[in-house]
Design a protein that fits this description.
The chain is mostly helical. The protein has one domain. The chain contains 5 helices and no strands. The two termini are 13 Å apart.
């Protein structure tokens, strides 16, 4: 999805300016943080842990303008805690940023 990657790239470029190393570091930090929340979603054993991980992921995605990930995090909040399908969808969406 070119739009999705473009929005993230634009946000990172605005933050990093012409500093390629900082741009790379910000992209890596976004992906690491997002994947950490996906891991927590996968390991959630109660509704509360699921909700916290999904809310953190949604906030992270919103702050980086990653709309698809933000919408999928909302789907996780709206759906059944522990839903493996939404975890797969989020993981697939995040792989587009690699």
């Amino acid at each position: 999805m070119a739009f999705e990657s473009g929005a993230l790239d634009a946000t990172l470029a605005a933050a990093a300016g012409d500093d390629a190393a900082l741009l790379s570091e910000l992209r890596s930090a976004f992906l690491d943080s997002a994947m950490r929340q996906v891991d927590l979603l996968g390991r959630s054993r109660c509704d509360g842990n699921w909700t916290v991980a999904a809310m953190r992921l949604k906030g992270l995605a919103a702050s980086f303008h990653a709309e698809e990930v933000m919408n999928l995090a909302q789907a996780a909040l709206d759906g059944v805690p522990g839903d493996p399908a939404v975890i797969r969808q989020i993981t697939t969406a995040l792989q587009k940023f690699c």
